[in-house]
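Structure ticket #2291
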Amino acid sequence: MEYREFHGQMISRLGMGTMRLPRVGGKDGAPIDYEAAEQVIDCAYDNGITYYDTAWPYHEGTSESFVGKALVSRHPRDTFALATKFNYRANPDYRYVFETQLERLQTGYIDFYLMHAVMDNSIDSYLSCGCIDYFMEQREKGRIKHLGFSSHATPPVLRRFLEAGDWEFVQIQLNYLDWEYATTHEEHDIIAEAGLPIVVMEPVRGGRLASLTPRANDMLKEAHPDWSIASWAMRWVRTLPQVQTVLSGMTTVEQVLDNVATFSAEDTLSADDLAVLEAARDAFHSELVVPCTACRYCTETCPAGIDIPEVLRLYNKIKMGSQTSRAMIANMEGGHPEDCIGCGLCVSQCPQGIDTPAIMAELTEIPAENATTRSIPKKD
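Resolution: structure written out below.
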């Protein structure tokens, strides 16, 4: 296992995320499968992982208690680091949350404490509620060792929050796909300019980079038949010197062992490997998303009044693994995917030849579970 020093403490570069612990029956929403999850934690600990990340909302509020029972109560406290978070939207009472977290985790201190999921629409809540000063006080008392935040914010908002506190680290979503096709590269550089180490979340993009398209998978397998597709994503993040620790939400012992092998290997990605990965990434992206340029020729003739470019933008995000974009489509003003009559006028106007009616039909079949203003009717 590879380790990196952080303020005198050696931290494993592979961290155990506890957002995707195995559930009873493997069903979404089911309770944590304690026996299976404990085996995953034991495997991680026995193989040298020393960073364990949880949060107040994970597993419907039960993840922290599980970590307290399965990890903290069973191993010497100085042999691992705990990370957990304050999420304003989950519960704004930060004093109650922090005291309860210490009880759940069966510990007197948290090694890495984070403001959770800072976004453009939540930053003001964190800045105005008093939580930052409170958690800095807890750090002075030794109940928090290191203070940071996790960000899903745009680069300008990320800069703003960096300036709002005496932070020691930042956690962001970082992977080779978002590096090229989102703002991740810019976010990384902003944090690097501030001189802070990065904790990585979603290195495999919620599992989306564990298997690409067949052509992209073949490109990677031809280069290294013995490497898993997911390990390419881990190896890529491992090459970034600003990265302190890479979190992986491991659900099985097999995933733990694969990741441990990746972070124990002395060899890193060569220049040739990086070229192969970039080619596979671009092939994956081109085969997965629609090439809408938002010229808006299609909207002029759409009888349903659908904002087609915006729907296609969100559709691409769905294909890349977004969990919220379908609800955003359902909540849009004007026409919606189920309003499409399949007339094909949009196709005749599209310079890219995008089959928009087919995409609208596909979206109609996807439930908008998080929609609040309009639901998608199910077909008989």
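Closing remark: Residues 216 and 283 are 6 Å apart (CA to CA).
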